[in-house]
Amino acid sequence: MRKPPKSLADRLILAVGIGLVLGLLVVPLVLIFSKALGDGLPALWSNLQEDYMLHAIGLTLFVAVLTVPLNMVFGILLAWCLTHYQFRGRRLLSTLVDLPYAVSPVVAGLCYLVVYGVESSLGQWLSARDIQLMFAWPGILMVTIFVTTPYVARILIPVMQAQGSDAQAAALSLGANGWQIFWHVTLPDIKWALLYGVVLTNARAIGEFGAVSVVSGTIMNQTLTLSLLVDQLNNDNKAAAAFTAAALLAVFAIVSVMLKSLLEWRVAAGRRRNQAEAVQQ
Q1: Number of domains observed in the structure of the chain
Q2: 173 assigned to some structural domain
Q3: CB 117, CB 42: distance < 8 Å
Q4: How far apart are CA 145 and CA 201, in angstroms?
Q5: What is the CATH number of the domain that holds 62?
Q6: Domain that includes residue 211, residue range
Q7: Which residues does the UniProt record annotate as the domain ABC transmembrane type-1 (predicted)?
Q8: CB distance 167 to 34 below 8 Å
Q9: Contact at 8 Å (CB) between 260 and 96?
């Protein structure tokens, strides 16, 4: 049960918490936007019109647009398998889903580079057929999919476990096929949790830096995403352009957080409704 701070210690803890939020989150965001707008809107617009900026924005959105639906489908299938079937290796599969959480993105990128780079046997085989994965957009897409793999599945698994399979079994007994069961029974129950996982996946895909930096080669106008562009422009002493790119990423992050909060509320409301219905039954 929540209660207002009464003692001096409670007020001190609250003040420290607010101070940390302001110092670590709010102040850096304000600084990013102030630096991006420091030379005025015309300079900001000019930076946004640079060819390297437009290419980085396009590549970032392109990777996110491909990553999100692929991981959405994979997450739904994986969550369905783990919650509806008992099979040998189920626990191992559930553990492997969390691997991207535990592995450093830089290490993940290096593993992809070792396996698919031109120095490996597979990389040489692909190169002989004019197929380039590393230091090109396919490599960026591959590592982005890897680091965002768990988000949808890990959101859906507890939701599906709480709902059980009685509704699906009832629909099956009434003659519904698999697609009808998913579309009319399963999807309405998981839609808010699914959207929540999609928002998290999209936010991570847009802001990923570590794994992408290893496999991209950081080639200007070819393999620089927005996050990589910020680092590249900063190293080139183009502070205004760097803060412009950082401001774009900050806008994406703020929108994602707002959507995340809204979807968290909807998911929590759905769980409370399901619990209330279960109690009534």
Answers
A1: 1
A2: yes
A3: no
A4: 9
A5: 1.10.3720.10
A6: 41-107+134-280
A7: 57-264
A8: no
A9: no
